[in-house]
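RECORD TYPE: inverse folding
INPUT: structure tokens
STRUCTURE:
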């Protein structure tokens, strides 16, 4: 049998690749008719190298957040938990950019948030007729054969 084709294949080993995840990448905060109600949520930063968890760190001064949004963290050196809080000054949805340091690399993660605004109160309806137009229905038992 003759050779029909010859080729070269490059194989890239990605078993040692780095990946970073946030345990929660989005949250909807409750709101009033025009702004967020003050509140907070948490997300944990997890870094992996292949199938092994590695240390991740976040420097709070590098986090980019809109006015009225603050980010704090705990002291866990491997998988820090971030608390993202909104104040009543927040009037629209937005994002928080979180630079995560893994070994000598920085990977930016984005946390998105929204506000579930409540509608304004509707007009009061008229009072009912207290049953003046009610219909009485009497049900009796009956037997039948089909």
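DESIGNED SEQUENCE:
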């Amino acid at each position: 049998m003759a050779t029909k084709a010859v080729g070269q294949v490059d194989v890239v080993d990605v078993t040692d690749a780095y990946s970073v995840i946030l345990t929660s990448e989005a949250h909807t905060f409750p709101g009033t008719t025009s702004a967020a109600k003050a509140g907070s949520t948490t997300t944990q930063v997890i870094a992996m190298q292949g199938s092994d968890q590695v240390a991740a760190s976040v420097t709070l001064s590098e986090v980019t957040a809109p006015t009225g949004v603050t980010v704090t963290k705990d002291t866990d050196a491997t998988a820090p938990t971030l608390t993202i809080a909104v104040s009543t000054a927040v009037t629209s949805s937005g994002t928080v950019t979180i630079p995560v340091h893994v070994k000598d690399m920085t990977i930016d993660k984005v946390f998105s948030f929204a506000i579930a605004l409540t509608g304004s109160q509707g007009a009061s309806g008229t009072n009912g007729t207290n049953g003046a137009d009610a219909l009485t229905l009497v049900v009796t038992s009956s037997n039948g054969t089909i």
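NOTES: The mean pLDDT is 88.
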